[in-house]
């Protein structure tokens, strides 16, 4: 089975991860591409398995491609954030009430003692809805912006300035993703951090509307941008470059020669490395978001002033554990969905032939 994957991979004519690849095994009149010397591409990007498994075609950069990537984002973000709700709940309580919840272990003990084991699941429903919506926009729009920005700046610049391309595409995607997330995040924090306010999403929404109106759901949007945009820029750029470096310096064989499982292991490792950096750069804004959604009538500036510099690092350790694990799992699931659905998975970028020719000429 995998031998046919690798044969197709070796014959790919595409030289950058930003070109277009046609996946359509049903087209019997298609001309087989000529081999390109030294080219390696992931087996999951092969054309034949997509059509054979799903009787459909998908083109890299097409509307269907972006839609399927969005589905991958829903599955990767919605499921993983819901899975770590207990850790997220204790982390939020450490941030807003460090006097009561002294550390991670103590936070779990106090929560279970006061509310039982079920108390650790508080806020799971808005978490599932909110981060599914965010994942749809985050991953789906990232792929959109990455392709569109690469088209604007051209193939050579897309390679030379690929880190900047990743940063710009991820920041643009997260801007819209946070608009989708904000109402659910506000409700989740209220449920988790305000004792007696509400036991579930259904109870929280009408209370929030009655007390503060629609502003209750979006007052945390700006600090959410401050938290999530740097986080996402680090998440995507660090992941993309880490994958590139792992295949170049750590993995002992070319990516095309790696099995599907081996490729996913690399994905998980790169995701965890990226997650640690994500947690650190976005943590102060995360603390402000938690306090802001907990406190009625407060502003981001007043919360930051009251916390002070050290106060904005409350709960960092559990957040590193949570975000590192989350990010690794998200990339693992997202890449796994791409494999399962036969979505094109371009390999790490390599220098375009035109740029190589220019360098030789110099």
Automatic annotation (TrEMBL):
Membrane-spanning intervals of the chain: none
Protein name: Phosphate carrier protein, mitochondrial
Solcar repeat start-end pairs: 64-148, 161-245, 262-340
Biological process, per Gene Ontology: mitochondrial phosphate ion transmembrane transport; wing disc dorsal/ventral pattern formation
Lineage: Eukaryota, Metazoa, Ecdysozoa, Arthropoda, Hexapoda
UniProt-annotated location(s): Mitochondrion inner membrane
Reported function: Transport of phosphate groups from the cytosol to the mitochondrial matrix.
Domain of life assignment: Eukaryota
Keywords annotated in UniProt: Membrane, Mitochondrion, Mitochondrion inner membrane, Repeat, Transit peptide, Transmembrane, Transmembrane helix, Transport
Gene3D superfamilies xref list: Mitochondrial carrier domain (1.50.40.10)
């Amino acid at each position: 089975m995998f031998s046919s994957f690798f044969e197709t991979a070796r014959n790919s004519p595409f030289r950058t991860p930003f070109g277009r690849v046609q996946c359509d095994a049903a087209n019997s009149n298609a001309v087989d591409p000529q081999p390109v010397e030294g080219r390696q591409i992931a087996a999951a990007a092969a054309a034949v398995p997509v059509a054979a498994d799903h009787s459909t075609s998908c083109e890299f950069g097409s509307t269907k491609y972006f839609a399927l990537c969005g589905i991958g984002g829903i599955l990767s973000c919605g499921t993983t954030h819901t899975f770590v709700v207990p850790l997220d709940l204790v982390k939020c309580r450490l941030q807003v009430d460090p006097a009561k919840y002294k550390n991670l272990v103590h936070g779990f003990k106090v929560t279970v003692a006061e509310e039982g084991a079920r108390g650790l699941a508080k806020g799971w429903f808005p978490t599932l809805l909110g981060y599914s919506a965010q994942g749809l926009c985050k991953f789906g729009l990232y792929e959109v912006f990455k392709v569109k920005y690469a088209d604007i700046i051209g193939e050579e610049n897309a390679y030379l300035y690929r880190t900047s391309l990743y940063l710009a595409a991820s920041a643009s995607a997260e801007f819209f993703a946070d608009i989708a997330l904000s109402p659910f995040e506000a409700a989740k924090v209220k449920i988790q951090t305000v004792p007696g306010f509400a036991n579930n999403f259904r109870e929280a929404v009408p209370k929030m509307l009655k007390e503060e109106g629609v502003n209750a759901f979006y007052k945390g949007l700006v600090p959410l941008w401050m938290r999530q945009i740097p986080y996402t820029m680090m998440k995507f750029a660090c992941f993309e470059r880490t994958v590139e470096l792992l295949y170049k310096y750590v993995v002992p064989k070319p990516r095309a020669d790696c099995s599907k499982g081996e490729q996913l292991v690399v994905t998980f490792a790169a995701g965890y490395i990226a997650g640690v950096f994500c947690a650190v750069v976005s943590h102060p804004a995360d603390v402000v978001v938690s306090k802001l959604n907990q406190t009625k009538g407060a502003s981001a500036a007043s919360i930051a002033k009251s916390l002070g510099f050290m106060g904005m690092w409350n709960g960092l350790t559990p957040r590193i554990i949570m975000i590192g694990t989350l990010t690794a799992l998200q990339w693992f699931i997202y890449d796994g969905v791409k494999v399962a659905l036969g979505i094109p998975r371009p390999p790490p970028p390599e220098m375009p032939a035109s740029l190589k020719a220019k360098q030789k000429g110099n």
